[in-house]
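Data deposition worksheet. Section B asks for the primary sequence of the deposited chain exactly as it was used as input, without tags or linkers unless they were present during the calculation. Section C holds the resulting structure in token form. Section D is free text for depositor observations; keep each observation to a single sentence. Incomplete worksheets are returned to the depositor.
Section A, Depositor: J.P.
Section B:
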Amino acid sequence: MPVPDAPSPQATPSAPAPGAHPERRPCVTELRLAAFAGLRRTALRLGPLTLLTGPSGSGKTSALRAYEALARLGGGAPLGMVFPDPVSCVPDGARPDAQRRRGFRIGCTADGPEGPVRLDVAVQAEPELRIVGERLSADGVVLLETALRDPGRRTVQAAWHTAGPAPVTRAPLPDDRLGTTLLPLRVAGKTDGQRRVLAAAEQTVVALRSVFACDPRPGRMRDPVPAGTGRLLRGCDNLADVLWRTRAECGQRYAQFVAAVRTGCAGPVADVLAEPITGGAVRALLERGDGTRSGLARLGYGEVRYLALALVLLTGPGVLEVDPAGEVPGALQTLTVLADGFDRGLDPHQRGELLRLAARMCERGHLRLVGAVSDASWAREATRGVTVVHLDA
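Section C:
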């Protein structure tokens, strides 16, 4: 299961990376699914605000799943944790080779100060889960390449660009982790070539790591929850706990949240509150302005999902359950929200308001959104600047 063909690691003159833009924040601008679940030879161009659309079974959820998997690998997670059921990622009808091996291939392009950097990964799902090929490249130069040479060993042979007395350095790397994340521990950074490898690897890791995948579940958000860390979970089950925390942290941002809720919920909304109840739990309420308070149990399915997604768009890594790259200043990072079923349960007014809120937040550069919707014909009417990617069943 090799990665797609590319030139071998090679030496180049000592010079800044072509196409480098020091002012850019690292972000993923393309997702490649060469062979993943039901998707083959698929390249998805991603803008600051992207909607994936297509009929049921076209691969929208699979694309978000692949993106999240790359993000977790970029954060250093072992392969087994990222793919607990790897066989489900193997394309339908994929036949094993002579050694009974089957797998899948995913990749991305991370743009930023170093210009576009490509990462492609080949994963063997059967008979053993392992990374069997990885390639990190920029401007036609392969900066890191790994390959499985001995199936009896739990390592891959890696070669990375040096551009010194020896053009390439070779060493074994573990087969259950992304080699790109391990380069800072193995590359000295003494030559221009090594420094370029490190910069490209850092850009890729930073672009991938700050990802929050969410799919709010109204049935769980309506109930009181124990007071805890105040970090929002992917299902937004602990919404009340997060409201309890964030209300006192940033009054201006919270006021924007209340204003967003006011536009998307029926009836008057003067405030959004969280109050403690017996047993150390908290519950979320809407203050109606006349002394009346409504619990989330009285809100419709779409209203609760709208409220949760608005909170996600108006908060950040310190509130969401993500693991950002701590070694890079927050001002240089971009949070990417992955929202499966972005418009699920929302009426036309709610989905339009939510998309406009997302567009305003994405314009600032600190947030990107990739959402899956069944139909995006309404999106361009709701706001400008949205990238619509159509997937066919």
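Section D:
The longest helix spans residues 192-209.
The chain has a mean pLDDT of 89.
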